[in-house]
Amino acid sequence: xxxxxxxxxxxxxxxxxxxxxxxxxxxxxxxxxxxxxxxxxxxxxxxxxxxxxxxxxxxxxxxxxxxxxxxxxxxxxxxxxxxxxxxxxxxxxxxxxxxxxxxxxxxxxxxxxxxxxxxxxxxxxxxxxxxxxxxxxxxxxxxxxxxxxxxxxxxxxxxxxxxxxxxxxxxxxxxxxxxxxxxxxxxxxxxxxxxxxxxxxxxxxxxxxxxxxxxxxxxxxxxxxxxxxxxxxxxxxxxxxxxxxxxxxxxxxxxxxxxxxxxxxxxxxxxxxxxxxxxxxxxxxxxxxxxxxxxxxxxxxxxxxxxxxxxxxxxxxxxxxxxxxxxxxxxxxxxxxxxxxxxxxxxxxxxxxxxxxxxxxxxxxxxxxxxxxxxxxxxxxxxxxxxxxxxxxxxxxxxxxxxxxxxxxxxxxxxxxxxxxxxxxxxxxxxxxxxxxxxxxxxxxxxxxxxxxxxxxxxxxxxxxxxxxxxxxxxxxxxxxxxxxxxxxxxxxxx
Length: 495
What we know:
mainly alpha
């Protein structure tokens, strides 16, 4: 009763506060009836003359401002629809600077995602492997940036000629350093310079290998993992990326992947799946009868920190993929990204509550990531309602996928379920929802998913088995038992 009374008092106070301005306005009008009469008695001629003078002044001020700022000859808003509004400004030097600034900031946000991945992976695995995970994630971003500068960027964007579209090795020798004014001006692109382009794309490249790190945690040799990651970043990610983003054969078929549900997340997911199979499960994961045992993570607060860092970074991941500061498209992308993440977290959390009779926070957090991966392929195509549906389906999918995968494959962080399964779903969703929806587009999306999957699986299997036979891929059981922090690094994360 006390809480009900308090709520009633608060509601009454709120209503009273909201009504004060209205009452005040009524009292002011009543106290000054002459002013109201004078306003009504203003002649039509005087009103028209005043309006004309104001319009002329506003027009002159606008033209002066546009001339002073070097702005474009912008058509009136009534003649430009929302989607094309930014195009009227894209040749403005100020807009070009803003485009570059926005993409570079988004690149910084994507960089923060590596801290999120490291935190998430540390929290979902055992404490005795923390140093090893941190070292792997440190090396991934370092190797990723260097290899993308040496090979990846030019291999991924090779300027395919007529009849080309699969691979162009001749582009590799060109290093990223340039003094060409055309590459550092709007002549290169209305949205960004050569270096802005490289900076943003390089952050994406390292993300792919980070996905694999979580799936093989706790039992892979450090040296073997670093060799595999280097090969993945040099010979796999840039090749499949060139098929679409580099104007290759997938792009020519009409395949759509806005920010990388397939080209980043599914590539990492396929590689994680194959490497987890080659590597085998952690000790104690499966019983003699084939049943699996749960191996709890060491730090759930760190998992939550990692997921929210990833969510924050995803605003740059998707928002920067607009490749300009186009306010219309960027705002839509940020909203659809947020709504899909929220729907994914809610759906996964409720599904775990329904199926397991207890709400599982790790499932809810993975559901957020699932929603983010799911919306990434079509964040710029979807309405807000469609984004919610895609995110919710992703959240449900990730729960059942984690349960199913765990029966046969040891994936400590759920990387296969989040990045592969939801990456595939998000790519196919572009043929079901949004501006491109249609059976032909759905078939095109499916072909793209299969093509990328086949290439990555074959590449990972060949590379992984070669590493296994040449240098070994798994630590000894004794080393795994004591933990990779001590056996590989000679130190502990917590003392």
